[in-house]
């Protein structure tokens, strides 16, 4: 059987968002993905595809057990100011029989890819001024969106 693949949102295509907004450059994001095999005794791995690979600076943790016949990885990324735009990462699960995966190449089964898309935009600063006119303009707060 094909290994199943999930993430925090339980979908096979994920648009990363911060609330209702796109990802902001300079703001860290973290999410988990997991995969499991239904064949008892099989092993499952979570891999990133070489094409397109990971966006610059995106990392994923060592694989760790997170349930029966299930593994997880934590994905972290803080997009830089020069990474405004849309970025993609593809992850797959690989299941193989007992033993060394190098020896089990003929018995490997791969999942459909989990596609993660992140649209990064530059944060916009807005200065909050006092309600009353003041001869000296004083910034009383700053918000970012």
Task: Provide an overview of this structure.
The protein is built from no helices and 13 strands. The strands form 3 sheets. Strands 2, 3, 5, 9, 10 and 11 form a 6-stranded mixed β-sheet that branches. Strands 1, 4, 6, 7 and 8 form a 5-stranded antiparallel β-sheet that branches. It is elongated, with a radius of gyration of 21 Å. It is an all-beta fold and 145 residues long. A hairpin with a 2-residue loop joins strand 7 and strand 8. The chain is 0% helix and 47% strand.
Features:
145 residues; mainly beta; six-stranded mixed sheet; five-stranded antiparallel sheet; elongated; disordered N terminus
Structural class: mainly beta
Major beta-sheet overview: 6 strands, mixed
Distance between the termini: 45 Å
Low-confidence stretches: 1-11
What share of residues is helical? under 10%
Mass-distribution shape: elongated
Output mean pLDDT. 76
Count up the helices: 0
SSE series: EEEEEEEEEEEEE
| Secondary structure: number of strands | 13
How much of the sequence is in beta strands? over 45%
Alpha-carbon Rg, integer: 21 Å
């Amino acid at each position: 059987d094909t290994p199943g693949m999930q993430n925090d949102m339980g979908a096979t295509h994920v648009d990363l968002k911060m609330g209702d907004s796109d990802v902001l450059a300079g703001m860290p994001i973290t999410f988990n993905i997991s995969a499991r095999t239904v064949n008892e005794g099989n092993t499952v791995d979570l891999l990133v595809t070489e094409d397109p690979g990971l966006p610059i600076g995106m990392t994923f943790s060592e694989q760790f057990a997170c349930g029966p016949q299930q593994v997880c990885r934590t994905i972290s990324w803080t997009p830089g100011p020069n990474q405004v735009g849309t970025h993609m990462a593809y992850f797959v699960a690989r299941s193989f029989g007992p033993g060394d995966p190098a020896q089990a190449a003929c018995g490997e089964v791969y999942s459909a890819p989990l596609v993660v898309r992140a649209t990064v935009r530059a944060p916009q600063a807005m200065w909050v001024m006092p309600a009353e006119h003041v001869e000296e303009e004083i910034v009383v707060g700053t918000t970012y969106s």
